Automatic annotation (TrEMBL):
Basic and acidic residues bias (residue ranges): 563-576
Recorded GO MF terms: GTPase activator activity
Similarity comment: family membership: Belongs to the Rab3-GAP catalytic subunit family.
InterPro entries: Rab3GAP1 (IPR045700), Rab3GAP1_C (IPR045698), Rab3GAP1_conserved (IPR026147)
Residue ranges constituting the Rab3GAP catalytic subunit C-terminal domain according to the UniProt record: 803-973
Pfam family, one: Rab3-GAP_cat_C
Keywords annotated in UniProt: Cytoplasm, Endoplasmic reticulum, Golgi apparatus, GTPase activation
Protein name: Rab3 GTPase-activating protein catalytic subunit
Organism: Thrips palmi (Melon thrips)
Name of the coding gene: LOC117639699
Disordered: annotated span: 524-578, 894-923
Localization per Swiss-Prot or TrEMBL: Cytoplasm; Endoplasmic reticulum; Golgi apparatus, cis-Golgi network
GO CC annotation: endoplasmic reticulum; Golgi apparatus
Domain Rab3GAP catalytic subunit conserved span(s) in chain numbering: 571-718
Chief location: cytoplasm
Length: 974
């Protein structure tokens, strides 16, 4: 015996070691306990629409036999309240001890859930808590494996005392095929399913379904009356042409920002005719006769389905095109567009002299050669010359001799940076860093994406931009002001491109004024600051003395001072603007005169940031010293006897500290002293004062060189890449989109009363304002970072900005689709509602409020009850729509299928008799989907068993048939 036991060939199996299947079951048990699903809870009864709410999920991975499975817990949110109420009196199974899932499935509130967010299992069985086990690797098609998984779940539920139903998903995922079970102390339930591609003939009608249900639960005995709920779904596909207004004129198409979808946003309209509670003894539905007529349905509800492949909204495409343009190559956004040799610019023909010059005559001789003309035609740009002129005339209407043929800029009613809502209920302004509406930059920001979108490529937009930059250079060289740009220095509350054009306009104004003075004086001119009271004044750099009004004042002062013998002829004051009302010079007691100073150098936002970033290189400090030195020299020229203390009192009053306890000086002024920072050794102010000479502003070196500044702006414009140009225009285009959305929403009485579109438009406006206030992504960083690092950082930041505007594209598309959907629903269901309200109908009636609530719910893609059902105004319009569809499909004879317009005085139609109902029923095609829910409480599996709830859900349509049944049985008395 010992030899047999020690024989190594004998196999010893250790039955104390857990197998893979036992570990799989144990893992399920631990997960159930960790999720606390083994603690039974009694919940409040389901209410209508509860299953449409939000669902919470928990998922854990489980490995079994080399495969990965996922166990997911689904639970309806906010329904875990313990109920202390009595069971529903109308529930036939109220006095039967049941599982919570059986109570839920017997409630009619869980029938016919159509919300996509609701899981399919809840739609089939009407439950709110369940477990789902499925494979993450492959589809479970083996019946043996399906039974192993289901038995494993059943054992885990029994071991843990969990009363939540558990399901296993098998077959293909698109089939949504589930098998499950649920275990309780006294009852247990099996969840079974049938899924076929074609419906058996006897299951197409209610009689066959009743026979199938009875044969499953009766076991040879007559069951009690069966409660039935039926729903018929009729689908109407939108085939009517969609009305959209696309302007053909260029000026109209750009000024009126395109809005709306190219096709009807609604692809299908579902009419749901429902009988929520019937008895099998009261209704007949067979192949020969049916009581289930849509006009006799207890409830009518509707649901819309949006088109998935419809033409995209035009407004969002405008912004999307600009975002797409940013991905073009980073080279300068300029194409090689040969110019007509007759004139250097497309607008030169309007301003050229009538007397031809020799060069122009020579050009005509050259271009008269046919071979040259043919070569020029072959080199024509991406846009034909006729279209190009229309574009340039729209951008620059001042070049047209006949103003009636163009759209002028709305001077002077520019409101900078305000995105105002015309709504009377909400007058909130959204500060947007953009350009004034209908300004030059505004038109350019709409024109370029339109050209890019129409050509689907770069050349069209690049050609327009090339002509724009050439026109900017031409206007600078000829000193022609740029239209459509706000006057004044660069406004940092606007976008960078508008600031650059403002800078260029300032340079043009300086150039014109300097040239006009040069004609009269024969010398160059400089500008002096009028401190905002008058226009800029320019004076000759005449070394012999002052000129103009300043010269006359100086002469009078010279005469007075010479008469008094106070000052010599070579020590006369110059460049005085006005006498200070209170201050006097500390040394002599003479009045302190405010000097004429040079203008501050205008700078755009990127230049200011450049100086800030380069402050550590002392460049900004040097500029500050230059400006202070210029003001000191002007002050000394106006006040020859002044000291540094006098200059500080006027220029920087905070650095002059008055002594309150000291007596007044001899001139009656409060005594004081310089601040502590002004008394420091080697102070910048003291050094500058010591080297400053009494030179008036008119003879100083200019701080602002308009030529250099203009060439810098032109170089910036010509060197922009597609990405830089898109970043410069995106704020303006987004501003235009948000403005158009607000206009569309608040101009329509119906849209203003709907809760969705106004809220979405206001949210979009806030997001656009926040996006345009983001820091500049094109600011030069080369003075702070190495060239390579600065370029990489700027490129990364620019791409992040483009992503921000791409998210705005989705918002604009959602709002635009919502607005178009609301208008489409009004035209179909209640035409005339809030379209032309008279004074007598100004007050909103109850029926109109009901219609607004109805359309608002439809916009949320929910199932909505039709006010008045089949007899209401909407029901009449829907019936007419189906009749028109039937006539088009079957080529029926003409009939009166017109739909009456909405009238607040008659919101409903008179009830029709039986003959009218049958006639109207002929307007409906066969139902696309037929759904039936049957439920009963009967003893099972035998007559001696306790009464147990039974439920089956049947769905039949053209290419699918499904049965989903829950069959409970007594676990004690078989």
């Amino acid at each position: 015996m010992n030899l047999e036991v020690d024989d190594p060939d004998v196999y010893h199996q250790d039955f104390t070691t857990a197998s893979a299947w036992e570990e799989f079951v144990d893992r399920i048990e631990k997960i159930v306990v960790d999720w606390k699903l083994n603690q039974p809870k009694t919940r409040l009864p389901l209410k209508k629409g509860d299953l449409d709410g939000e669902w919470t999920t928990k998922t854990e991975e489980i490995h079994f036999e080399g495969e990965k499975f996922s166990l997911t817990s689904w639970s309806l949110k906010d329904t875990s309240i313990i109920s202390s109420e009595e069971p529903e009196p109308d529930n036939p199974s109220a006095n039967v001890p049941q599982l919570q899932c059986l109570v839920d499935m017997m409630s009619t509130s869980g029938d016919f859930v159509t919300v996509a967010s609701c899981p399919r299992i809840a739609q089939f069985y009407g439950i709110r808590d369940f477990l789902l086990l499925k494979s993450d690797v492959r589809n479970i098609t083996s019946e043996t494996q399906a039974k192993i998984l289901l038995s494993s779940l059943t054992m885990a539920l029994h071991a843990t005392g969990c009363e939540i139903p558990a399901f296993v998903q098998i077959l293909e995922l698109w089939q949504h095929f589930y098998l499950g079970s649920c275990l309780g102390k006294e009852l247990s339930a099996d969840y079974e399913m049938v899924h076929l591609e074609r419906t058996p003939q006897h299951c197409k009608y209610l009689t066959g379904l009743l026979d199938t249900f009875k044969s499953k639960i009766s076991r040879g005995q007559q069951p009690p009356p069966i409660n039935i709920a039926v729903r018929l779904t009729y689908t109407l596909r939108m085939l009517s042409p969609w009305k959209t207004s696309i302007p053909t004129d260029l000026a109209t198409s750009v000024s009126m920002v395109p809005f709306g979808t190219g096709s009807d946003p609604i692809s299908k309209l579902h009419l749901l005719a429902t009988w929520p509670q019937l008895n099998d003894q009261m209704v007949v539905d067979s192949q020969s006769y049916s009581d289930l007529e849509p006009m006799q349905a207890h409830l009518w509800s509707m649901q819309i389905e949006l088109a998935k492949n419809a033409k995209g909204p035009q407004l969002s495409q405008l912004l999307a095109s600009l975002c797409k343009m940013s991905s073009e190559p980073l080279a300068p956004f300029i194409v090689d567009c040969p110019r007509n040799p007759k004139f250097g610019n497309s607008l030169d023909a309007l301003t050229e002299s009538k007397v031809p010059t020799f060069s122009k005559v020579l050009d005509k001789v050259i271009t008269g050669n046919p071979s040259v003309i043919n070569r020029q035609r072959n080199k024509q740009g991406a846009i034909p010359e006729s279209s190009l002129k229309d574009i340039l005339y729209y951008l620059f209407p001042d070049a047209v001799t006949d103003p009636s043929t163009t759209v002028p800029y709305p001077y002077p009613s520019f409101e900078t940076g305000k995105l105002s809502s015309p709504s009377k209920e909400n007058q909130r302004n959204h500060i947007v860093k953009s350009a004034p509406p209908d300004s030059l930059v505004w038109r350019l920001a709409l024109l370029l994406p339109l050209m890019y979108n129409s050509s689907r490529s770069t050349p069209g937009a690049a050609h327009v931009w090339y002509e724009f930059t050439e026109e900017m250079r031409y206007r600078w060289e000829k000193a022609i002001p740029i239209p459509g740009v706000m006057p004044g220095y660069a406004d940092h509350k606007t976008c960078l491109l508008h600031q650059k054009l403002q800078m260029l306009n300032v340079c043009i104004e300086k150039k014109k004024l300097r040239a006009s003075l040069a004609v009269g004086k024969g010398s160059a001119a400089v500008s002096v600051d009028s401190e905002g009271e008058d226009d800029d004044q320019f004076f000759d750099c005449d070394t012999s003395g002052p000129s103009g009004a300043a010269a006359e004042d100086a002469e009078m002062e010279d005469a007075q001072d010479t008469a008094d013998g106070k000052r010599s002829l070579w020590d006369q004051p110059e460049g005085r603007k006005a006498k200070h009302p209170t201050l006097r010079l500390l040394k002599t007691g003479e009045p302190l005169y405010i000097p004429l100073t040079q203008d501050l150098v205008p700078k755009s936002e990127d230049e200011v940031e450049h100086e800030t970033a380069a402050a550590h290189l002392s460049q900004a400090h040097a500029y500050s010293c230059t400006v202070t030195l210029s003001d000191m020299e002007s002050f000394k020229a106006a006040n020859p006897d002044a000291a540094l203390e006098d200059f500080v009192r006027w220029y920087s009053p905070r650095d002059w500290v008055e002594l309150p306890d000291a007596p007044l000086d001899e001139w009656g002024q409060v005594q004081g002293e310089l601040s502590e920072r002004m008394r420091l050794d080697d102070n910048m102010w003291q050094n500058l004062w010591s080297v400053a000479q009494p030179v008036p502003a008119l003879r100083q070196r200019r701080l602002f060189d308009e030529t250099r500044s203009a060439e810098s702006v032109l170089a910036w414009l010509e060197g922009l890449s597609a990405l830089d140009l898109a970043l410069a225009l995106l704020p303006v285009t987004a501003h235009a989109c948000a403005t158009r959305v607000l206009q569309e929403v608040h101009a329509d009485d119906l849209l203003r009363r709907l809760p969705g579109p106004p809220a979405a438009a206001e949210t979009l406006a806030r997001h656009v304002a926040a996006a345009t206030r983001e820091p500049l992504q094109t600011a030069p960083l080369g003075n702070v970072l190495p060239a390579g690092a600065a370029k990489t950082a700027a490129k990364t930041a620019a791409k992040e900005t483009v992503k921000l505007y791409e998210r705005l594209v989705s918002e604009v598309e959602a709002v635009e689709t919502q607005v178009c959907t609301a208008r489409s629903l009004r035209s179909k269901l209640c035409p005339g509602l809030f379209e032309a309200q008279s004074e007598a109908e100004a007050a909103v009636s109850d029926s109109q409020k009901e219609m607004v609530d109805f359309l608002s719910a439809l916009l949320e893609l929910k199932e909505v009850l039709v006010p008045g059902g089949a007899r209401g105004r909407i029901g009449s319009n829907v019936r007419g729509m189906f009749a028109e569809a039937q006539k088009m499909a079957q080529m029926l004879p003409d009939a009166a299928t017109g739909r009456p317009e909405w009238s607040a005085a008659s919101p409903d139609l008179p009830a029709s008799g039986p003959s009218g109902a049958s006639a109207s029923t002929a307007s409906f095609p066969p139902a696309d989907v037929k759904e039936v829910v049957m439920r009963v409480v009967t003893p099972r599996p035998s007559a001696a068993s306790k009464p147990c709830p039974q439920r089956i859900y049947a769905m039949h349509r053209k290419d699918e048939f499904r049965l989903a049944g829950c069959f409970a049985r007594d676990a004690t008395f078989y």
